[in-house]
Write a structure and sequence with these properties.
The chain has 102 residues and is of the alpha+beta class. It has one domain. The protein has four helices and three strands, in the order ααββαβα. It binds zinc ion (ZN). The site of zinc ion has 7 residues, from helix 2. The site of zinc ion (ZN) has 7 residues, from helix 2.
């Protein structure tokens, strides 16, 4: 199986093409984005579990969001993950994005 290595933050923002599905072990953002975004926030990565094959690695849907550290702690009531990356179920990012628009 070939894997596409794109930075989930800036790679995901590039226009066009089919949805950029990637795998959970490839989510490390490029060093630029890590410095720019993850120094102050936590990267949320939306991932879908394959219910028929729960032992497989969840597939990223392509949705990502960076939440500021404070917002993350408030929303999730848990400590900041050490790598500043957290997986969320499908729908959570949309929910937060809608919440932030208010
Ligand atoms: Zn990047």
């Amino acid at each position: 199986m070939s894997k596409v290595r794109v930075c989930v933050i800036c790679g995901g923002k590039r226009a066009g093409g089919p949805s950029r599905r990637s795998f959970v072990d490839d989510i490390e953002p490029c060093s630029k984005c890590r410095k720019k975004y993850l120094s102050k926030g936590v990267l949320l990565v939306e991932a879908k579990e394959d219910r028929a094959h729960p032992e497989d690695t969840p597939t990223m849907t392509g949705s990502v969001l960076v939440l500021k550290n404070d917002a993350f702690k408030q929303l999730f009531e848990m400590p900041i993950p050490p790598r500043k990356i957290a997986f969320v179920e499908v729908g959570i990012i949309e929910m937060i994005a809608n919440e932030l628009k208010k």
